[in-house]
Every structure is written in C-alpha cells, then in structure tokens.
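Lecture 7, part 2: worked example. A protein chain together with iron/sulfur cluster.
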Amino acid sequence: MDIDVLVTRLASQGAKRIYIQAPEGLKTRVQEIASRIEAQGIEVLLGCDPTYGACDLRDKEAKALGCDLLLHIGHTDFGVRPVLPVLYEPYAIPIDLVPLLERHLPGLEGYRTLSLLTTIQFADALEPAARFLERQGKRILFAKQARNQREGLLLGCDWTAALPLEKEVDAYLYLGSGRFHPLGLALKTEKPVLALDVEQGTLTDLGKERDRLLRIKTYHRGIAKDATTFGILLTMKEGQGFVRQAFHLKTALQAMGKQAWILVMDEISPAKIAGMKLDVLVNCACPRMDEDFSLFKKPILNPADVYQLQREAAAADAHVMVEESAAAPRA
Ligand code: SF4
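Predicted complex, written out as structure tokens:
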C-alpha cells in the first residue's frame, strides 16, 4: 500500500472525517496509516471490531459517527451497497514465490495443467509464478472471479475464478497463507486442490481434510433428522444477511415438525447463545461458518442441508403412503 497515494485519493474525495476498517493482520500498522492521514487534516476513527471481509462493511456505523467516507483496507468490493462512499484499499504483500515453487516442484509432478489461485494480498505474485511453472512444462490457466476483474482470485465463498476451469485442469494450486480459501474450493470440486502455504513453506494436498469435513457434514445431517430444536443464525453484516432465506428455512423446518428460532446478532459467537436450548444450528450467515461446529459444540447445517433433509423427509412420506396403499384391502 502506498500511503502517499492513499492520502491523495482521500483528499481528492474531499473527506473530512473517515472511519478505517482493517483486518486483524494489519492492526499493527493502522496507527501509522492513520497518523499520515490525520497529518493532512482528515479526522480518523479506527474501527476495532474484527473485519472478516468486504461482506462486513461498517458503513452505517461510520455514517452515524459523522464520517463522510469509509476506508476499507485489505479487501476488494464484495458488492454490498453502502450508505456512504467506501474506498477499498487492497493490501498487497510483496513476495517472490519462485524459490518456494522450485522447492516443491516434485510435489507437482503428475499435474500438467494447473489453475493458479490466490487472494488479493498475493495477487501481484501470480503472474511471475505462472511464467516460472510454464518454463517447467506446465500449462497454466486462469479465470476471473465474478466480483473482481483480476484473474485467479479466490474468496472464502466465491470460487468463480476456479470452478469454470474444472474440466480442463489436473489440479488447482493455491498460493497464499492458511487453508481457509483453498479448503472452501476443495469442498466444491472433485479435482485435487494443492495449497502452497507461503508462511509455513509447505505444499499440502487438501483431499484428506476435505473428506474428513464431508464425513462430518453427513454425520451432522444424520443428527439433524431426529433433532427437535433448531437455531437459525442470522447476522446483521450487510454482505451476509439473508433475512428472507432465514424465514424460508424456518418454514421448511416447521413443516418437518421441528421447532425453529431465528437468532439475530452481528458477530456470531457461541457465548451469545449459551443457555438456549438448541439441538442444531442452521447457518444463514457466512457460508463457511458451518466448519466452526467444534467452536459451537453443536452440529451446524447450511441451508442446502436443510433442503436436502426436507427432500428426504418428503421421499420417506411418499414411500410410506405407497406401502400403506399397497397393504389396503381391495374392493
Ligand atoms: S467467506 Fe465469509 S467472511 Fe469471507 S467474504 Fe465470504 S461471506 Fe465474507
């Protein structure tokens, strides 16, 4: 991030008071950034709540505090319609991935056509990585993410930069930190997803992790079949708030004879629902939250799981009706 350029952009927008939202990893630098902005006569408020993505804009809060602009650092536009202007400032981490790729070339043997993927922080490193791999005889493919014009960018809940290439690639290769983004893709595709972790220096095939999670999801659907009380988790975060879907899910669960409650909060946490009688949670917020079942100590279903249960229940009812009519005495 070039702070001088950022300050010029803020001044050109006529900002007098701004609210800064930054991801946790940037908290160590946010005061330095704010000082440079304040030196230009712009008042700064520092948002300290966790920021999970651009699905989580604090625009209403900023407006209520008299700000004329929200500076959202670290993510690109998610498509939320804000109530005041938002300046998205991606935070690029300069890195040369070639030495790490070179070290892990043996792990890429057997995969000739690869789709390279990363997050916005490492987007600049993608092109040199692709050229290096091409020199090693690999065929490299990219697709654009629906929400962004740059190629090869993954979100935790948006795989449009990957899935259109599924038929053509031998494997997906994610270059970045952590497993959150590549694991989301692994749950959506049958093709191998390899994660080259730039912090750990490791190359991991996420197949085992994917299979483990899929087994747990199936187990949770089994528990939900016999459960009676469901809590539908609904967040007020603008990019994650699916109110109509929450009511639809409640109706679907009630039609199966279940009791269902819509539970509203901003940040969803186990402490906020401690003490409530809930057998199973239904995630109507960030679609990746169903992986947090160990945190909530309860099964968490996604909406698709509820609709699958509904179909299974309808199929079971139809089966019983057929059996009953076959057993009925004929006139
Ligand atoms: S994965 Fe969740 S937190 Fe990340 S952008 Fe999507 S909805 Fe937001």
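Residues 194 and 205 are 4 Å apart (CA to CA). The mean pLDDT is 92. Keep this in mind for problem set question 3.
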